[in-house]
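Re: duplicated header lines in exported structure tokens

Our pipeline writes sequence and tokens for each protein into one text file. With two proteins the header for the second block appears twice in some exports. Here is an export where it did not happen, for reference. First protein block:
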Amino acid sequence: MKNSIKTFTHIDINKCFNALSTYKIIGTAAEEEFDRISKLASLVCNTPIALISFKDNQRHWFKSKIGIELDELPIEIEFFYNAKSESAFEVTLEEGWQHNYKTFIPEISDIRFIAGFPLIDPDGCNLGMLCVMDNIPRVLNEEQRLALGLLADNLISLLIERKKHDGLSQFEKLFELSGDLLSWIGSDGLFKKANPALLDMVGLSQEQMCATSLFEFMHPDDHESAVSYLERIKAGESVVKFMFRGRHKTGEYRYVQCTCSPDPESGQFFTLARDVTQEVLKDKQIEESEARFRTVFEGSQSMIATHDLEGKLLSLNPAGATMLGFTPDELKDKTLFDVFPSTEWDRLRVHLESIAVDGKRQNQLTFDLPNGDRRSILFNHLLHLSAKGDKYVISNGTDITDRYLIEKELELARKMLEETSSIAGIGGWQLNVEKQLLYWSAITKEIHGVPQSYEPTLESAILFYTEKSREIIQHAVEVAMQSINNWDLELQITNAQGRTIWVRALGASEFENGVCTRLYGTFQDIDEKKTIQLERQKSEAILSAFVQHTPVAVAMLDKQMNYIAASNRWISDFSLENSFAVGKSYYELFPQLSNEAKARHLRILAGAIEVSAEDNIILADFAKVRHVAWEMRPWFEFDG
């Protein structure tokens, strides 16, 4: 089992189990939001299996699953979950990996690859894992790893929002069921009458309530302020509002918002009160939420900014200021037009106008920083309304400079490849098998002699081949569509001008889930090269036949002194019937040659012509010596 996993500071596993229980996720029914994320993970990583898994102290439970029927796995299957991982990891499983565990699970026995990303909540607790699996070993590319991490981030956001929504739902339900608390109170502070909601709150009967003073109901620490408000009513104020803590029938104190109005005729005053305990707590939660937002705002590595529709900056986090090449203090009371160079101002105005109309906008700006560095940022903008009804924009910016430079390099590489292919006369092609759509590059169209507007089909492309070549290419295509197979063929086509030429056709097939989805390859005009090759082969065949049957002892050798051809007389005269072969070394057949003879060969290869009227030759069987006359001379290709 091979893997590469980063580690982070260990969080107590019991703390993680407790944190997971607060999300109330295990055992819940399938939800579309979770299924959508697992489906996206499967599609992005091109794997048949994707899971959203949560681990308690008993099992790996699947909230969402794609491509597998299991609902959970035993806790012992530890390859499936790494409690110490902090980023995307990949594991390649050897065949028979399940033998390491007591329990054999046939549904996962074929798995050979797993990649995952842990679900780390804001407190650093590992809640589970988003993972993908395949039945073949593989490696994710960088974009797939990045996408898996982004989906995991979305899962964490979904869990947090789900948890928050559950809490708010309970709060809203409690809030809706709480009624108004109505009562009449005398100038002596005694209740004269209370409505059922108030009676229920304090847990008293009407008779008991009428014998109770407002101050008995009120928290002692609030008496002083309450007396001052009541004195204001006696002094003639028509309406007085104040808050105090009132004792509940359970003995606890609740925050009560009270509005009092005097009744001149009875000398009493009417009170309309509401239990605002939840609202007070909500305000505190908002304060805590704002504090958490401030932490995210200050600590985020992405740009977070707010500005109005005129471009005036309202807030900008430190990372955003750094991304723009400034310090936070340098951007106080500045506008976007102070931040970005004047070359971008027209685009900025267009973006601001579009946000005002559409309510959202995504754009990319590439510009020079004050220090001269080139920076490319991808922005997402959303229009919001403040509590006062003022429109403002929340903008999030991600530094994509590295990606931008890579895209530029890829574009340059693509252009260079096209130019190189054009110079080499090599074209490309591909066939979408499902849609039966055939694509030819510009060079491929030139080779076929058709205009650039020409749209080929599989049937029309086959018809360009000559009859003999057509059978060969059709067979190659049929074989490739049945199984992964490549071809490299030299064939003849008749182009649109009626000229028959030689071409080199290369092709390969691509399969998904056992089905051929794409054929692709290259196409090259090799007519001139092939014609020369055929002519040369023809000439060599004629020369070889001439040499072989000439009535004298003649041999031809290449520059490495390997035989190209030899006459029958040569073979018989030198007793080479059992050892001669084209391509065999001259020195292998005549190992007894002197250094002088070898030096002579070098001179002749350099251009000399040498002749001997008589020389002694020891034959290959070392048993005979023959006196011969010989002539040796170089021979040249037609180009010298």
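Second protein block, exported in the same file:
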Amino acid sequence: MNSGARAFGSQQANLFDAVPELLGAASRADRTSARPSFPFLRQAGKASGAFSRPVPVPESLPAMRARLLNTARQRVLFLALVFAALALVAMVQIFWLGADGAGSSNRSSINPLIPPRGEITDRNGIPLAVTYPAYSLYFYPQAMDGTGENPLVRQPADLVRELKAIFPDMDEASIAAKLASGKGGYLRKRILPEEANAVWALGEVALQSPQVLDRHYPQGRLAAHVVGGVADDGETQTGTFGMEAALDQWLSDPDTRGTPAALSIDARVQGALEDEMNRGMKLAKADGAAGVVLDVDTGEVIAMASFPDFNPNRVSQDDAKNTGNRVTYLRGELGSVFKPLTVAAGLDAGVITNLTRQWDASPVEVGGKSFEDFEDKGDALTIPEALAYSSNTVTMRVGAKLGAERLHRLWLDLGMDRPVDIEIKGTSTPLFPKAPWSPMTTQVAAFGHGFNVTPLHLANAYAAMVNGGIFRPATLHKVEPGASVPGTRVFKPSTSQKMRQLLRLVVKHGTGRNANAAATGFRVGGKTGSAEKLINGRYSTTRIIATFAAAFPMDRPRYVVVVALDEPKRTHAMAGRTAYFNAAPIVGNLIRRAGPMLGVRPDNVRDVDVSEFEYLLKDKS
């Protein structure tokens, strides 16, 4: 064998001798690695360049499971990071909106459920004022070509005729003039959706129906003077008078406007008061009227009405002069309704100790003038008789006994020298004589003359006289049941109890009999007053203010009612122009209707006992 053969044989033997070792190494690699190692293949590949990449080997199940689990974890982490980023962006945006003041916008983008202006309701939740989106009719000349030179497709006169078919009450001449002028502006502030659609169907692009805010009063004229009104430009609404002005901050603040503002008014009683006053005013042909129902324990105004009234949804030019509230601004000498207050002051001061004592009822000479009673009932009268027959002379003598200082002090304690303390604006300052009072001023003031106040002043005073002696200012805010309302004592409890008897006597047997007849069983007590108006410094003999101030039920007074008629006349329906004929029946009819609404039922068994005084009146009635 030559040397080449030997060399080949030697190499061949060595190659086969290495096979068992290679197989053993491969077996060990299978146990320690998922991918087998072939050294001889690597060497061969390196030498020849034929193998540049390893041969793929199938992945084992544990490795695959580990790889998939790792991928899932990465994806979950990615999604979590995305959501966290979105939340961070939202938080930054909310913070930016709050810092930028967007939260105070009337049209809140944060909470569209909050109304642009808060709702006003009565004490039982009946809506009195609400705001909602509405439509208007606006003339925009530049809408056609951007210049406004040719704003309309039709001639103005032709277009007005078509608009008249949509809006029958439209003033054609006025609208035609606005269209012909070429100046933009509102043609109608409020239109219905169907009217907006009809305008759109005309095809005039210059006639637009932008959405605006509308302050609506669902009850119409009911409690119009109490609720008031707003200045409204379609975008913002600001209270101008009444409770709309008093509650403006609450109604416009985003933090509070979502909660309705509840007034003390009871819409049912308010409706009854307005109905009876309107009827009585027309029967007496009075120039105006004012009325109020007051809770004697809390000062809550249950109803308040003024006539002539107005429609708050559309205040016409004629109605604008009627927006003043006569209950709080109509000043006048209310007359004899103040006599019971003078008697109460006499009882408190000990000037009156015996109600059956005879007082001189002859004419009074003071200050160079003579005063006498409207109807002569004799030269001497007791206090019950003096109230029942409305004696000027006896009341003047009680005032003289009291003296200027004590009577003046009482009038101050009852707030007669200052505007009534109530939420609404537009209250009048009384015309009140300055101290020191002369004998003339003192004795005239004792029977309700010489100073001018409003009907609400009188209602506050009567509430204090019958509720046990506590004076509380009137309020138009609802007082929650059981809430304590602070007040100031102005009469003794015993005086208040005695005045209940005397006021009940006046209605049963005196000048208030017409109220008793209209409200049988409701135990009404009160006093009439018919005072001549002071015109240009002189008292008129033909123009008066007729007032009736009452409380019920007198066995446990809960409400005071005051109604005043401005310049009533004698008519076929009214036998006279004094309060006996007009104001007293109005109050009686109201109590008959409103009493059950307020939880007061007719009951003759629980009436106040006035038998100890009735015998005094039998011979003179």
